[in-house]
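Hi W.,

Here's what went into the run:
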Amino acid sequence: MDLKRMGNQTVVFANPPVILSSYSIVGPKEGEGPLGKTFSKVWQDQLHGEKSWELAERKMLQEAMQGAIDQAGIPKEQIDFMLAGDLLNQIISSNFAARQIGLPFIGLYGACSTMALSMAVGSMLIDGGFARNVLVGVSSHHDTAERQFRSPTEQGTQRAMSAQWTVTGAGSLLLGRSGVGPRITSATLGRVVDYAETDIGNMGSAMAPAVADTILNHLTDLQRKPSDYDLIASGDLGTVGLALAGEVLKRSGMDMGTGFSDCGVMIFDSSQDVHAGASGCGCSAVVFAGNIMQRIKAGELKRFLLVGSGALHSSTSALQGESIPSIGHAVVIEA
Amino acid sequence: MANQNLRQPSISVTPEQYKQLAQQYTPKPTVVKNVVRAFIVGGVICAIGQIFINLFVTFGLARIEAATAATATMIFLGALLTGLGIYDEIGKFGGAGSIVPVTGFANSIVAPAMEFKREGYVLGVGAKLFTVAGPVLVYGIATSIVVGIVYYFLH
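Here's what came out:
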């Protein structure tokens, strides 16, 4: 059998899956940000008429995934799997969204890297011949994440300068075996890397080595250099993590040049008081489904690398003094 | 790394070197700004408390009773401002200046109460009410017991 593997940890698709549609929904703060116009829908408030933030998040995810199905105009009978994940315990937003959508469901958890992870796994399902079309999507909600990982939202505390702001947003893509659209050509699944960062107020620093490791392996596996990409964007290291990842890569002999950015840096501007940028599954999902997809379709980006970055700790492990194990997953999207 | 026999990370930076790098790249807390703001906000809160004490005294309360009434008033105001979604903004600006006074204590009780109402009144509000204030109460009361015992034997 002809293996579709290259190097240490990269898969190259023989028949690259097509991104048939993309849909993104964000909360009001994200809507006010510099990418506000690129999202499919902006909610006017964090609850959107629901009784709790958790209900709002799962509704946001469900609407985004339904939006991707409707936009592609593909009947549900031809969609073989739904892949989804979020940040809440037991990925409940995804579980409840899957209950409403009703497709065979694979729940994924990769923290903030889940969008890239779902794109990689979805593409493998399609290229492996197990599915015709796969629906992928993720969500995060600022207030649900805040109460699960940190303190009550009305608590009067100060956030660290290195802290990142969890995005309220849900993004979804419909991947297909054939059709018109950008293609996912290869994916590098990351390893868990832990460089002993214990500060949950500094996730960018915890995740940067994992992202650098994945990028390095990706480029080595495919014998490419950073300039082979029009843009490489991590999601979401924030300003601190992005600078650290760039420095780590430089010291490892890989100068990233100017085409290296981060979804968590792109989605907010400095006047929005988010400190080191954004985080949350929804961040890279909506930036990709909105801004990046538009730029690929406009011909501005011919080859794009999304490197999802996830901090795989829990509030319990953090309280018990464990460091933050982190991961980076990379997917290549070509026009 | 847990298992040294596995393939090592490909990056050429050791955890020790990375620790230094991370320190270098992580923005420092804005200590001077925070201290000045905490001084102003904490001072304003205490000045308001003093205004209430003086008011209650002019209404005829004894000094010590006026102080108790003023504390109760400040707790009420802290709770009210939390409920209106204002106190967390004050806290973001004032830091310790708004956490240390009694209004901050009110905030730390009311914020979880609001937050966990959706999980029900028993296992939500009841169980989570003291998630933030709990440690303060536990160690505050424990310290007062120790001090009380020492005081008993010294006198």
